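Hello Y.,

Per our agreement to keep a running log of every chain we model this quarter, I'm adding this entry. I've kept the format consistent with earlier entries: sequence first, then predicted structure.
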Amino acid sequence: MLQPAPVKNKWLYGLVFLFSVGLVLFPFIALCFFVHPCADDFEFSKWTNFFVQNLHYYTQWSGRYFSTFVLSLSPVHWHSFFGYKVWSAAFILFFAGSLYVFTKKWVQAFVALDFVVIHIIYIGALLLAFDSAPSLVEGFYWASSAVTYLFSSALFFLFLTHLIVVFHEKKYQTAFLLPLLLFCIIGGNESWMLLVDTTLLGILGYELYRRGERKAILMALGLLLWASVVSLIPLLSPGNAARHLQFMYDKDPNPAFSIAAFLPSQIGMLMFQDIKSPFFIIYIVITFLVLKRSHLKQAPIKFFPGLFILLVGLGLLLAPVSLITKQAPGRVLNVVIYVIISAFGYLLFSLPQYSKVFQKVVL
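Predicted structure for the entry above:
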């Protein structure tokens, strides 16, 4: 296996990388200038007192306090439709940026690579994220959905990145950002709330299982307690009752049967959504070539504990979807796709450290 070689002409590689990312993002950014606000975009923009209006949404409509806070800042409030288009583009750019930060830190945690190879892996992941998303329209071009799902997904990637910095690289002094990220993610979307709580519970259990540093265990416990307390804010929102009344007829009367019968098929369907993408094959091939020429590091988390956290997280994300009698909105399924893409990346990089058979195949 080869150690990463020093890269000459870094500025040239940087320009090529920026051009490549720009080429991928250009059509999606260009489409932003053809979108217009609709439905909830106008509703969130109608306010005379910013804080009173956000309190009204919390008590009468939804516990997503952070999403409603951001949506209330829509340029539509100031009658700027052009600002709305720029706003939509900004969310896509922020998502692409957070995915880059996460991909770079995640790959570097497993293997020693130069930044050129990391950039190639990132472009593959970015193409896969756009190509396999069940609904680009709802996920990227409707601000009321983009803030709730796309923006929250980007924050979740930053959260995972910071978890690697704190718990794997042992840079505990930077942990002060995690409570803030947790507050924003939990208030952005219930799906990510379930996933961050599951992730922190898994990290605490893993640190206890391997008898990690006392500081790491206390930090994981503190973050889990903080996330549990913050999760009560959306869960106890009086506005949830109004949303329940609106959607109560879409729920299956036999929830246990629905989850048992449809949860596996939901996971299988969404995994197929990824696998059928041509960029998935490219992503797999690139990763195999990278592993063949790279020096493996000690994985941030062992294979089976990581797999268990991923499966529990996917189950919690899709269990509510399995209770809906009609087709789940594409914007909701987008979130699950991003988790599945991350799961594939985890499996590809962690399997060689666990399985001798897989080591022979790729190494």
